[in-house]
Design brief:
Layout: H1 12-24, H2 29-37, H3 45-51, H4 74-92, H5 94-120, H6 127-149, H7 157-166, H8 169-191, H9 194-201, H10 204-215, H11 222-238, H12 240-243, H13 246-249, H14 257-284, H15 291-313, H16 326-348, H17 351-373, H18 379-397, H19 420-425
Helix pairs in contact: 5-16, 5-17, 6-15, 6-16, 8-14, 8-15, 9-14, 10-14, 10-17, 11-18, 17-18
Length: 435
Protein backbone atom coordinates (compact mmCIF):
# COMPACT_ATOMS: atom_id res chain seq x y z
CA UNK A 1 0.00 0.00 0.00
CA UNK A 2 1.20 3.52 -0.88
CA UNK A 3 -1.29 6.05 0.61
CA UNK A 4 0.69 9.09 -0.49
CA UNK A 5 0.68 7.93 -4.16
CA UNK A 6 4.38 8.67 -4.26
CA UNK A 7 6.10 6.93 -7.17
CA UNK A 8 8.02 3.90 -5.98
CA UNK A 9 11.39 3.42 -7.66
CA UNK A 10 11.70 0.15 -9.63
CA UNK A 11 14.70 -1.94 -8.77
CA UNK A 12 16.64 -3.87 -11.39
CA UNK A 13 15.93 -7.10 -9.53
CA UNK A 14 12.18 -6.50 -10.01
CA UNK A 15 12.66 -6.17 -13.78
CA UNK A 16 14.56 -9.44 -14.00
CA UNK A 17 11.95 -11.14 -11.83
CA UNK A 18 9.14 -9.94 -14.12
CA UNK A 19 10.90 -11.22 -17.21
CA UNK A 20 11.27 -14.63 -15.57
CA UNK A 21 7.51 -14.71 -14.92
CA UNK A 22 6.74 -13.76 -18.53
CA UNK A 23 9.05 -16.43 -19.87
CA UNK A 24 7.48 -19.06 -17.60
CA UNK A 25 4.02 -18.22 -18.98
CA UNK A 26 5.14 -18.34 -22.60
CA UNK A 27 4.70 -14.55 -23.21
CA UNK A 28 7.42 -12.31 -24.62
CA UNK A 29 8.16 -8.80 -23.41
CA UNK A 30 6.59 -7.33 -26.53
CA UNK A 31 3.42 -9.35 -26.05
CA UNK A 32 3.12 -8.15 -22.46
CA UNK A 33 3.59 -4.50 -23.51
CA UNK A 34 0.90 -4.83 -26.21
CA UNK A 35 -1.59 -6.38 -23.82
CA UNK A 36 -0.91 -3.77 -21.12
CA UNK A 37 -0.75 -0.72 -23.37
CA UNK A 38 -3.85 -1.46 -25.42
CA UNK A 39 -6.66 0.71 -24.00
CA UNK A 40 -9.34 -1.37 -25.72
CA UNK A 41 -8.39 -4.53 -23.90
CA UNK A 42 -10.77 -5.22 -21.03
CA UNK A 43 -10.83 -7.87 -18.39
CA UNK A 44 -13.67 -9.77 -20.03
CA UNK A 45 -13.82 -13.58 -19.77
CA UNK A 46 -12.80 -13.90 -23.44
CA UNK A 47 -9.83 -11.60 -23.03
CA UNK A 48 -8.77 -13.34 -19.84
CA UNK A 49 -9.00 -16.69 -21.61
CA UNK A 50 -6.75 -15.35 -24.37
CA UNK A 51 -4.13 -14.29 -21.81
CA UNK A 52 -4.37 -17.25 -19.43
CA UNK A 53 -2.02 -20.14 -20.14
CA UNK A 54 -3.38 -23.67 -20.26
CA UNK A 55 -2.57 -26.22 -17.62
CA UNK A 56 0.00 -27.97 -19.81
CA UNK A 57 2.04 -24.80 -20.37
CA UNK A 58 0.75 -23.93 -23.89
CA UNK A 59 -1.19 -20.78 -24.77
CA UNK A 60 -4.94 -21.23 -24.77
CA UNK A 61 -6.44 -20.79 -28.25
CA UNK A 62 -9.71 -18.81 -28.40
CA UNK A 63 -12.85 -20.74 -29.28
CA UNK A 64 -13.31 -18.58 -32.38
CA UNK A 65 -10.15 -20.00 -33.96
CA UNK A 66 -10.61 -22.62 -36.66
CA UNK A 67 -9.81 -26.28 -36.04
CA UNK A 68 -6.87 -26.10 -38.43
CA UNK A 69 -5.27 -23.35 -36.29
CA UNK A 70 -5.70 -25.19 -33.02
CA UNK A 71 -2.63 -27.11 -31.87
CA UNK A 72 -2.94 -30.80 -31.02
CA UNK A 73 -2.74 -31.13 -27.27
CA UNK A 74 -1.28 -33.97 -25.27
CA UNK A 75 -4.72 -34.92 -23.94
CA UNK A 76 -6.09 -35.30 -27.50
CA UNK A 77 -3.23 -37.62 -28.45
CA UNK A 78 -3.79 -39.67 -25.31
CA UNK A 79 -7.52 -39.91 -26.06
CA UNK A 80 -6.87 -41.08 -29.64
CA UNK A 81 -4.38 -43.74 -28.50
CA UNK A 82 -6.77 -44.88 -25.78
CA UNK A 83 -9.68 -45.28 -28.23
CA UNK A 84 -7.48 -47.15 -30.72
CA UNK A 85 -6.18 -49.49 -28.02
CA UNK A 86 -9.68 -50.19 -26.71
CA UNK A 87 -10.86 -50.92 -30.25
CA UNK A 88 -7.94 -53.33 -30.67
CA UNK A 89 -8.78 -55.10 -27.40
CA UNK A 90 -12.43 -55.31 -28.44
CA UNK A 91 -11.43 -57.02 -31.67
CA UNK A 92 -8.92 -59.34 -30.00
CA UNK A 93 -11.25 -60.46 -27.21
CA UNK A 94 -13.88 -63.16 -27.27
CA UNK A 95 -14.72 -66.01 -29.59
CA UNK A 96 -14.45 -63.89 -32.74
CA UNK A 97 -10.68 -63.47 -32.66
CA UNK A 98 -10.13 -67.12 -31.71
CA UNK A 99 -12.22 -68.37 -34.63
CA UNK A 100 -10.54 -66.01 -37.12
CA UNK A 101 -7.03 -67.04 -36.03
CA UNK A 102 -7.90 -70.75 -36.27
CA UNK A 103 -9.51 -70.16 -39.69
CA UNK A 104 -6.33 -68.42 -40.89
CA UNK A 105 -4.19 -71.33 -39.65
CA UNK A 106 -6.54 -73.90 -41.19
CA UNK A 107 -6.43 -72.21 -44.59
CA UNK A 108 -2.64 -71.97 -44.46
CA UNK A 109 -2.11 -75.61 -43.51
CA UNK A 110 -4.69 -76.78 -46.05
CA UNK A 111 -2.98 -74.83 -48.85
CA UNK A 112 0.53 -76.07 -48.00
CA UNK A 113 -0.63 -79.68 -47.58
CA UNK A 114 -2.49 -79.59 -50.90
CA UNK A 115 0.63 -78.18 -52.57
CA UNK A 116 2.68 -80.99 -51.01
CA UNK A 117 0.16 -83.60 -52.15
CA UNK A 118 -0.19 -82.37 -55.74
CA UNK A 119 3.21 -80.76 -56.38
CA UNK A 120 5.60 -83.06 -54.50
CA UNK A 121 3.89 -86.43 -54.08
CA UNK A 122 1.98 -86.14 -57.39
CA UNK A 123 -1.02 -87.99 -55.99
CA UNK A 124 -3.73 -88.89 -58.51
CA UNK A 125 -6.93 -88.79 -56.45
CA UNK A 126 -9.93 -86.72 -57.53
CA UNK A 127 -10.39 -83.37 -55.77
CA UNK A 128 -14.16 -83.86 -55.95
CA UNK A 129 -13.81 -87.08 -53.95
CA UNK A 130 -11.80 -85.20 -51.30
CA UNK A 131 -14.50 -82.53 -51.09
CA UNK A 132 -17.28 -85.14 -50.94
CA UNK A 133 -15.61 -87.02 -48.08
CA UNK A 134 -15.06 -83.70 -46.31
CA UNK A 135 -18.76 -82.87 -46.55
CA UNK A 136 -19.69 -86.30 -45.17
CA UNK A 137 -17.32 -85.75 -42.22
CA UNK A 138 -18.79 -82.29 -41.63
CA UNK A 139 -22.34 -83.64 -41.76
CA UNK A 140 -21.57 -86.44 -39.27
CA UNK A 141 -19.81 -84.06 -36.86
CA UNK A 142 -22.66 -81.55 -37.05
CA UNK A 143 -25.21 -84.29 -36.32
CA UNK A 144 -23.17 -85.33 -33.28
CA UNK A 145 -23.06 -81.74 -32.01
CA UNK A 146 -26.83 -81.42 -32.53
CA UNK A 147 -27.42 -84.55 -30.44
CA UNK A 148 -25.30 -83.09 -27.62
CA UNK A 149 -27.20 -79.80 -27.62
CA UNK A 150 -30.81 -81.02 -27.80
CA UNK A 151 -32.91 -79.72 -24.88
CA UNK A 152 -35.06 -82.06 -22.83
CA UNK A 153 -38.34 -80.78 -24.29
CA UNK A 154 -37.12 -81.18 -27.90
CA UNK A 155 -37.88 -84.23 -30.07
CA UNK A 156 -35.30 -86.99 -30.45
CA UNK A 157 -32.36 -86.69 -32.86
CA UNK A 158 -34.06 -88.58 -35.69
CA UNK A 159 -37.08 -86.26 -35.65
CA UNK A 160 -34.86 -83.20 -35.46
CA UNK A 161 -32.68 -84.30 -38.39
CA UNK A 162 -35.78 -85.08 -40.45
CA UNK A 163 -37.03 -81.56 -39.77
CA UNK A 164 -33.66 -80.14 -40.85
CA UNK A 165 -33.82 -82.12 -44.08
CA UNK A 166 -37.31 -80.79 -44.80
CA UNK A 167 -36.23 -77.17 -44.20
CA UNK A 168 -32.87 -77.26 -46.03
CA UNK A 169 -34.04 -75.48 -49.18
CA UNK A 170 -32.02 -72.32 -48.48
CA UNK A 171 -28.83 -74.30 -47.95
CA UNK A 172 -29.47 -76.29 -51.13
CA UNK A 173 -29.53 -72.99 -53.05
CA UNK A 174 -26.15 -72.14 -51.52
CA UNK A 175 -24.78 -75.56 -52.51
CA UNK A 176 -25.91 -74.98 -56.10
CA UNK A 177 -24.10 -71.61 -56.08
CA UNK A 178 -20.89 -73.34 -54.96
CA UNK A 179 -21.35 -75.91 -57.70
CA UNK A 180 -21.82 -73.18 -60.31
CA UNK A 181 -18.64 -71.48 -59.06
CA UNK A 182 -16.76 -74.76 -59.52
CA UNK A 183 -17.95 -75.04 -63.13
CA UNK A 184 -17.14 -71.38 -63.88
CA UNK A 185 -13.59 -71.72 -62.56
CA UNK A 186 -13.10 -74.74 -64.81
CA UNK A 187 -14.41 -72.81 -67.83
CA UNK A 188 -12.26 -69.75 -67.10
CA UNK A 189 -9.04 -71.76 -66.67
CA UNK A 190 -9.66 -73.46 -70.01
CA UNK A 191 -9.81 -70.11 -71.79
CA UNK A 192 -7.38 -67.81 -69.92
CA UNK A 193 -4.04 -68.27 -68.20
CA UNK A 194 -3.55 -68.89 -64.50
CA UNK A 195 -2.03 -65.42 -64.04
CA UNK A 196 -5.05 -63.63 -65.49
CA UNK A 197 -7.35 -65.84 -63.43
CA UNK A 198 -5.44 -64.91 -60.25
CA UNK A 199 -5.74 -61.19 -60.98
CA UNK A 200 -9.51 -61.31 -61.43
CA UNK A 201 -9.95 -63.66 -58.47
CA UNK A 202 -8.81 -60.92 -56.07
CA UNK A 203 -11.96 -58.95 -56.91
CA UNK A 204 -13.93 -61.22 -54.55
CA UNK A 205 -12.78 -58.95 -51.69
CA UNK A 206 -14.65 -56.03 -53.19
CA UNK A 207 -17.64 -58.08 -54.36
CA UNK A 208 -18.14 -59.35 -50.80
CA UNK A 209 -18.09 -55.80 -49.41
CA UNK A 210 -20.40 -54.55 -52.17
CA UNK A 211 -22.93 -57.35 -51.63
CA UNK A 212 -22.79 -56.66 -47.89
CA UNK A 213 -23.65 -53.00 -48.49
CA UNK A 214 -26.47 -53.81 -50.95
CA UNK A 215 -28.07 -56.92 -49.43
CA UNK A 216 -27.47 -56.35 -45.71
CA UNK A 217 -27.83 -52.53 -45.95
CA UNK A 218 -24.52 -52.01 -44.16
CA UNK A 219 -22.64 -48.75 -44.41
CA UNK A 220 -18.85 -48.82 -44.19
CA UNK A 221 -16.66 -45.80 -43.57
CA UNK A 222 -14.38 -44.50 -46.30
CA UNK A 223 -11.42 -45.63 -44.18
CA UNK A 224 -12.61 -49.23 -44.45
CA UNK A 225 -13.26 -48.99 -48.18
CA UNK A 226 -9.72 -47.66 -48.65
CA UNK A 227 -8.40 -50.49 -46.50
CA UNK A 228 -10.22 -53.07 -48.65
CA UNK A 229 -8.89 -51.55 -51.88
CA UNK A 230 -5.38 -51.51 -50.42
CA UNK A 231 -5.85 -55.12 -49.33
CA UNK A 232 -6.93 -56.18 -52.81
CA UNK A 233 -3.92 -54.47 -54.42
CA UNK A 234 -1.59 -56.02 -51.83
CA UNK A 235 -2.85 -59.53 -52.56
CA UNK A 236 -2.53 -58.82 -56.27
CA UNK A 237 1.11 -57.79 -55.85
CA UNK A 238 1.72 -60.82 -53.65
CA UNK A 239 0.61 -63.04 -56.55
CA UNK A 240 3.33 -61.53 -58.77
CA UNK A 241 5.15 -64.88 -59.33
CA UNK A 242 1.98 -66.19 -61.02
CA UNK A 243 0.87 -63.30 -63.21
CA UNK A 244 4.47 -62.11 -63.68
CA UNK A 245 5.22 -65.27 -65.67
CA UNK A 246 4.55 -64.63 -69.39
CA UNK A 247 3.51 -68.26 -69.87
CA UNK A 248 0.77 -67.91 -67.26
CA UNK A 249 -0.53 -64.66 -68.73
CA UNK A 250 -0.93 -66.06 -72.22
CA UNK A 251 -4.38 -67.32 -73.16
CA UNK A 252 -4.71 -71.07 -73.57
CA UNK A 253 -4.41 -72.38 -77.10
CA UNK A 254 -7.81 -72.52 -78.74
CA UNK A 255 -9.45 -70.66 -75.86
CA UNK A 256 -11.65 -67.59 -75.93
CA UNK A 257 -10.29 -64.83 -73.68
CA UNK A 258 -13.67 -63.07 -73.55
CA UNK A 259 -15.46 -66.21 -72.37
CA UNK A 260 -12.76 -66.92 -69.77
CA UNK A 261 -12.83 -63.37 -68.42
CA UNK A 262 -16.63 -63.34 -68.20
CA UNK A 263 -16.60 -66.70 -66.40
CA UNK A 264 -14.13 -65.61 -63.72
CA UNK A 265 -15.94 -62.29 -63.16
CA UNK A 266 -19.24 -64.12 -62.67
CA UNK A 267 -17.50 -66.53 -60.31
CA UNK A 268 -16.08 -63.78 -58.05
CA UNK A 269 -19.48 -62.07 -58.02
CA UNK A 270 -21.16 -65.31 -56.96
CA UNK A 271 -18.45 -65.77 -54.32
CA UNK A 272 -19.28 -62.43 -52.71
CA UNK A 273 -23.01 -63.09 -52.97
CA UNK A 274 -22.69 -66.58 -51.46
CA UNK A 275 -20.80 -65.27 -48.42
CA UNK A 276 -23.41 -62.58 -47.73
CA UNK A 277 -26.30 -64.95 -48.44
CA UNK A 278 -24.92 -67.43 -45.90
CA UNK A 279 -24.47 -64.67 -43.32
CA UNK A 280 -28.02 -63.44 -43.87
CA UNK A 281 -29.45 -66.94 -43.44
CA UNK A 282 -27.47 -67.56 -40.24
CA UNK A 283 -28.26 -64.24 -38.57
CA UNK A 284 -31.70 -63.18 -39.81
CA UNK A 285 -33.60 -66.32 -40.76
CA UNK A 286 -36.95 -66.58 -38.89
CA UNK A 287 -36.27 -70.21 -37.94
CA UNK A 288 -33.13 -69.12 -36.03
CA UNK A 289 -31.47 -72.52 -36.36
CA UNK A 290 -28.18 -73.20 -34.62
CA UNK A 291 -24.82 -73.05 -36.36
CA UNK A 292 -24.43 -76.84 -36.29
CA UNK A 293 -27.89 -77.31 -37.76
CA UNK A 294 -27.08 -74.99 -40.65
CA UNK A 295 -23.79 -76.81 -41.23
CA UNK A 296 -25.66 -80.11 -41.32
CA UNK A 297 -28.06 -78.73 -43.92
CA UNK A 298 -25.25 -77.28 -46.05
CA UNK A 299 -23.21 -80.49 -45.97
CA UNK A 300 -26.28 -82.57 -46.82
CA UNK A 301 -27.09 -80.28 -49.76
CA UNK A 302 -23.49 -80.23 -51.02
CA UNK A 303 -23.07 -84.01 -51.17
CA UNK A 304 -25.25 -84.49 -54.30
CA UNK A 305 -23.41 -81.65 -56.07
CA UNK A 306 -19.93 -83.09 -55.46
CA UNK A 307 -21.18 -86.60 -56.19
CA UNK A 308 -22.41 -85.43 -59.60
CA UNK A 309 -19.02 -83.84 -60.35
CA UNK A 310 -17.23 -87.01 -59.26
CA UNK A 311 -19.34 -89.27 -61.46
CA UNK A 312 -19.08 -86.89 -64.42
CA UNK A 313 -15.27 -86.92 -64.24
CA UNK A 314 -15.22 -90.67 -63.43
CA UNK A 315 -12.95 -90.09 -60.48
CA UNK A 316 -9.31 -89.09 -60.78
CA UNK A 317 -6.54 -90.55 -62.87
CA UNK A 318 -6.61 -93.67 -60.67
CA UNK A 319 -10.38 -94.16 -61.05
CA UNK A 320 -13.17 -93.86 -58.50
CA UNK A 321 -11.67 -93.47 -55.01
CA UNK A 322 -8.28 -94.48 -56.33
CA UNK A 323 -4.92 -92.97 -55.37
CA UNK A 324 -5.96 -92.14 -51.82
CA UNK A 325 -3.40 -91.82 -49.03
CA UNK A 326 -3.08 -90.50 -45.49
CA UNK A 327 -2.37 -87.03 -46.90
CA UNK A 328 -5.55 -86.99 -49.00
CA UNK A 329 -7.60 -88.09 -45.98
CA UNK A 330 -6.04 -85.28 -43.91
CA UNK A 331 -7.08 -82.87 -46.67
CA UNK A 332 -10.67 -84.07 -46.29
CA UNK A 333 -10.49 -83.50 -42.53
CA UNK A 334 -9.07 -80.01 -43.01
CA UNK A 335 -11.72 -79.24 -45.63
CA UNK A 336 -14.48 -80.25 -43.23
CA UNK A 337 -12.91 -78.15 -40.47
CA UNK A 338 -12.69 -75.20 -42.85
CA UNK A 339 -16.40 -75.35 -43.60
CA UNK A 340 -17.26 -75.36 -39.91
CA UNK A 341 -14.84 -72.51 -39.17
CA UNK A 342 -16.25 -70.37 -41.99
CA UNK A 343 -19.73 -70.70 -40.50
CA UNK A 344 -18.44 -69.87 -37.02
CA UNK A 345 -16.49 -66.85 -38.29
CA UNK A 346 -19.62 -65.48 -39.97
CA UNK A 347 -21.70 -66.11 -36.84
CA UNK A 348 -19.32 -64.36 -34.45
CA UNK A 349 -18.02 -61.81 -36.96
CA UNK A 350 -19.14 -61.14 -40.51
CA UNK A 351 -18.25 -62.07 -44.09
CA UNK A 352 -15.68 -59.26 -44.41
CA UNK A 353 -13.73 -60.47 -41.37
CA UNK A 354 -13.87 -63.99 -42.78
CA UNK A 355 -12.38 -62.64 -46.01
CA UNK A 356 -9.65 -60.86 -44.05
CA UNK A 357 -8.74 -64.11 -42.29
CA UNK A 358 -8.53 -66.09 -45.52
CA UNK A 359 -6.51 -63.29 -47.13
CA UNK A 360 -4.06 -63.31 -44.25
CA UNK A 361 -3.76 -67.06 -44.78
CA UNK A 362 -2.36 -66.38 -48.26
CA UNK A 363 0.62 -64.62 -46.69
CA UNK A 364 1.16 -67.28 -44.02
CA UNK A 365 0.82 -70.19 -46.45
CA UNK A 366 3.33 -68.59 -48.84
CA UNK A 367 5.85 -68.23 -46.02
CA UNK A 368 5.34 -71.87 -45.02
CA UNK A 369 5.58 -72.93 -48.65
CA UNK A 370 8.88 -71.06 -49.05
CA UNK A 371 10.57 -72.47 -45.94
CA UNK A 372 9.13 -76.00 -46.13
CA UNK A 373 8.74 -76.69 -49.86
CA UNK A 374 11.09 -74.15 -51.45
CA UNK A 375 8.38 -71.95 -52.95
CA UNK A 376 9.06 -68.43 -54.28
CA UNK A 377 9.46 -65.44 -51.95
CA UNK A 378 10.60 -62.26 -53.71
CA UNK A 379 11.14 -58.71 -52.47
CA UNK A 380 7.88 -57.66 -54.15
CA UNK A 381 6.02 -60.39 -52.26
CA UNK A 382 7.51 -59.27 -48.94
CA UNK A 383 6.49 -55.64 -49.55
CA UNK A 384 3.02 -56.75 -50.63
CA UNK A 385 2.73 -58.91 -47.51
CA UNK A 386 3.44 -55.90 -45.31
CA UNK A 387 0.81 -53.93 -47.24
CA UNK A 388 -1.75 -56.70 -46.68
CA UNK A 389 -1.06 -56.75 -42.93
CA UNK A 390 -1.33 -52.95 -42.69
CA UNK A 391 -4.59 -53.02 -44.67
CA UNK A 392 -6.08 -55.63 -42.34
CA UNK A 393 -5.06 -53.53 -39.33
CA UNK A 394 -6.53 -50.37 -40.89
CA UNK A 395 -9.85 -52.14 -41.41
CA UNK A 396 -10.08 -53.75 -37.98
CA UNK A 397 -8.87 -50.70 -36.02
CA UNK A 398 -11.41 -48.35 -37.59
CA UNK A 399 -13.75 -47.35 -34.76
CA UNK A 400 -16.75 -46.58 -37.00
CA UNK A 401 -19.56 -48.91 -35.85
CA UNK A 402 -21.26 -51.23 -38.34
CA UNK A 403 -25.00 -51.67 -37.92
CA UNK A 404 -25.78 -55.18 -36.62
CA UNK A 405 -28.25 -57.41 -38.41
CA UNK A 406 -31.71 -57.65 -36.87
CA UNK A 407 -33.37 -61.08 -37.09
CA UNK A 408 -36.66 -61.27 -38.92
CA UNK A 409 -39.81 -61.95 -36.86
CA UNK A 410 -40.08 -65.57 -35.77
CA UNK A 411 -43.10 -67.52 -36.97
CA UNK A 412 -44.71 -68.65 -33.73
CA UNK A 413 -46.31 -72.07 -33.41
CA UNK A 414 -50.09 -72.09 -33.19
CA UNK A 415 -50.69 -73.48 -29.69
CA UNK A 416 -54.47 -73.45 -30.08
CA UNK A 417 -54.54 -76.74 -31.98
CA UNK A 418 -57.39 -78.92 -30.73
CA UNK A 419 -56.97 -82.23 -32.59
CA UNK A 420 -54.03 -84.59 -32.98
CA UNK A 421 -53.88 -83.78 -36.72
CA UNK A 422 -53.54 -80.09 -35.92
CA UNK A 423 -50.68 -80.83 -33.55
CA UNK A 424 -48.85 -82.90 -36.17
CA UNK A 425 -49.25 -80.16 -38.76
CA UNK A 426 -47.73 -77.50 -36.49
CA UNK A 427 -44.11 -76.93 -37.56
CA UNK A 428 -41.34 -78.15 -35.31
CA UNK A 429 -39.30 -75.01 -34.93
CA UNK A 430 -38.21 -75.35 -31.34
CA UNK A 431 -34.83 -73.71 -31.01
CA UNK A 432 -31.76 -75.77 -30.30
CA UNK A 433 -29.44 -74.59 -27.58
CA UNK A 434 -26.40 -75.40 -29.67
CA UNK A 435 -25.58 -71.71 -29.78
Amino acid sequence: MNPSNTPVPIQSSDIHHGKDILRSTGMSDGTARRVTASPSTKSTPTAMAAKTPSSDGANHVPASASKADRPVTTSQIQTYLSVTFKNFLGFMSGMKMLVLVILCLQNSIFTVLRRYSQGVLRESYSKHEVLLVGEIIKMAFSAWMISKSLPEDCPDLKTRLQYLVDTSKKMFILALIYGAMNILSFVSLRNIGAGMFTIFAQCKIMTTATCSAIILKRSYSWARWRALISLMMGVLLFSEPIWGNPDNMAANEGGNALVGTAAVLIEVTLSGFASIYFEKVIKTDPLQLGIWERNFQLALSSCPVYLAFMLFNRGGEAGLFGGWSLVSFMLSLLGAAGGLLVALSIKYGDSILKTLATTGAIILSSLLDHYLLGGPLTAVMMIAGVQVIISICNYTFDATPVEPLVPEPVNKIDLSAKTQDDVEEAPLISKSTSE
